[in-house]
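Consider the following input, taken from an annotated entry for HTH luxR-type domain-containing protein (Streptomyces griseoruber).
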Amino acid sequence: MAVHAADPLTGTGLRTWLAECPRISPTALGEAEVVVVAAAAVDASVLHLLRGLPAPAGSRFVLLVSGGCHAGPVAAEPRIRAVLWRAEVDAAALVRTVHDVAAGRAFLPSAVQGGLLDELERIQREVLGPRGLSASGLNSREIDVLRLLAEGRTLSEVAAELSYSERTIKNILSAAQIRLGLRNRVQAVSYAIRGGLI
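Applying the prediction step yields:
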């Protein structure tokens, strides 16, 4: 865990809070799994700052902000895993959040969560939908084929059900497998099941 703050007083205070927890080990910024960053607001300048930090590629950020936070910048930097309001946070909440983020969990204010969901909806509507794709990377025709295969139908039965030739069904499956890097039909069906598509 490392701390980055433009203001030395804030940085010292955060390090002091975190040092009180024996389960948190301070590390150099270049080795940190979790980096606590104090910022005025979550905006383009913070994104620039985060991308310029010498933190490892797999590190996650906990932002402690005193101003606004919008979904756009959070969506643009997927390593932001938590946003805490400076006026509301105490040492216990900060320590708990650092542990949660290190364990793979996230904490984002509800307004940011709503904004992220709105952004996902917009991407589905404006980018994926017109191309016949969903957020899973599968289009509705591919999902229909995989759903029928998951029910135990043969390729000829799937073709008859969907009014396609058997060759078309094979082409649909092949295109999905290649695009998603799947080796066979079983993996394709498993992918759809794990994604909650069927």
